[in-house]
Design a protein that fits this description.
single chain, 120 residues, alpha+beta, 2 helices
């Protein structure tokens, strides 16, 4: 391996390491903000997007009479969860920061209505 190839490889690995570090740190800070200012409500899954090696679930919820949109990566193609309701925790300071719990489906219509949805 030539000197230039070694330098290029080193720069590549350092860049990847920094990217992973900042992504992990960003997620950690998001979770801290949610935990510090936690509010629990109901969210509705409205879309599942699959691209190559990842699947993304898009959802929305109401907080302070405003509709907020968010999304989260999921394990696999879960099209069966579209139009279903799940518990979501969010930050009261930064509602854009949220965590959805796909193992906690909400089926009680009174909880869904209290969360701001029109239940059919």
């Amino acid at each position: 391996m030539t000197r230039n190839e070694k330098i290029s490889a080193s720069i590549f690995f350092i860049s990847i390491s920094l990217l992973v570090y900042f992504a992990f740190n960003s997620q950690k800070n998001k979770n801290k903000i949610i935990d510090k200012n936690r509010f629990s409500t109901v969210a509705k899954i409205y879309e599942i997007k699959s691209k190559r090696s990842f699947t993304y679930a898009r959802y929305y919820f109401y907080f302070n009479n405003e509709k907020h949109f968010s999304g989260e990566y999921v394990d696999n193609d879960k099209r069966h969860i579209i139009n279903k309701y799940y518990r979501v925790e969010l930050s009261t300071v930064e509602p854009k920061y949220s965590r959805i719990y796909l193992d906690n489906e909400i089926t009680d219509s009174s909880d869904i209505i209290k969360a701001g949805f029109k239940y059919n």
